[in-house]
């Protein structure tokens, strides 16, 4: 029984019509990271940030899982052992594609978080600044998203699984954001076979044993089958 850890990034959802961050016309070309993806940006202009995530929630809700999301769900169902998908994506295309053993390390668009008491609840399609927490009543709702400078979710479970995995694959992620970009080194230390699946080599591409280059709907399907 072997353990497979799969890290996914924006590239796996690109063919579902969801923009990546660092492409020439991607999200970071249209918005300043400091304004929309940091706690300081939220403190300064919460409406700008809430509107940014409302728009992305609408885009994600209209998108459909693609062949790559479905292939990973198939792998989980058929593999004799554990398959853990760790996604940096905040869309829900992995779960709608059928993945069950899944960690959203950078949070989720369909979740709201109370900045006062840490309670979580399903986000409405359109959040508003000053929405009340259903648990403590504070007007402290925020998107349940991990911004720069914040601690990604479930790191203990991720590192524990990386430390005993046999295969590690990174799909559609540019390797620019830590701690996710450090997972390949962690898996290699554990003796795992590592493979990068992407349109092009990432910033940490040289650390992988092998690469499969091309659009995720083709490369992931071929890797799984
Ligand atoms: C395709 C394709 C197709 C396209 N098929 N492929 C160490 C060194 C230096 C800095 C740091 C460090 N440790 C921490 C930092 C600070 C910071 C950081 O990393 N900064 C860097 C910019 C240098 N990190 C943090 O602040 C993190 N927190 C933290 O570290 O806490 C302390 C800690 C330390 C140690 C252990 C544990 C904790 C938090 C990071 C939060 C990231 N947040 C964002 C935004 C919020 C979510 C959202 O709004 O959606 O998350 S930033 C953004 O980047 C988003 C993404 O999840 C993330 C990664 O982007 P991704 O997915 O890789 O997308 P792209 O666009 O970059 O790449 C797409 C790829 O797909 C490309 O390669 C394409 O080629 C490919 N592609 N089409 C296949 N069809």
TrEMBL record:
Binding of Zn(2+) occurs at 114, 117, 133, 136
Q: Where does NAD(+) bind?
A: 9-28, 88-91, 172-174, 198-200, 216
Principal cellular location given in the protein's record = cytoplasm
Q: Which residues form a coiled coil?
A: none
Tell me the active site.
Answer: 106 (proton acceptor)
Q: Which compartment or compartments is the protein found in? A: Cytoplasm
Question: Domain named Deacetylase sirtuin-type: which ranges?
Answer: 1-225
Q: Does the keyword Nucleus apply?
A: no
Q: How is the cofactor bound?
A: Binds 1 zinc ion per subunit.
Q: Which reaction does it catalyse?
A: N(6)-acetyl-L-lysyl-[protein] + NAD(+) + H2O = 2''-O-acetyl-ADP-D-ribose + nicotinamide + L-lysyl-[protein]; N(6)-succinyl-L-lysyl-[protein] + NAD(+) + H2O = 2''-O-succinyl-ADP-D-ribose + nicotinamide + L-lysyl-[protein]
One protein family per Pfam: SIR2
How are the domains described in the entry?
A: 2 residues (Tyr-53 and Arg-56) present in a large hydrophobic pocket are probably involved in substrate specificity. They are important for desuccinylation activity, but dispensable for deacetylation activity.
PANTHER family noted in UniProt: NAD-DEPENDENT PROTEIN DEACYLASE, NAD-DEPENDENT PROTEIN DEACYLASE SIRTUIN-5, MITOCHONDRIAL-RELATED
Q: What is this protein called?
A: NAD-dependent protein deacylase
Its source organism is Sulfitobacter albidus
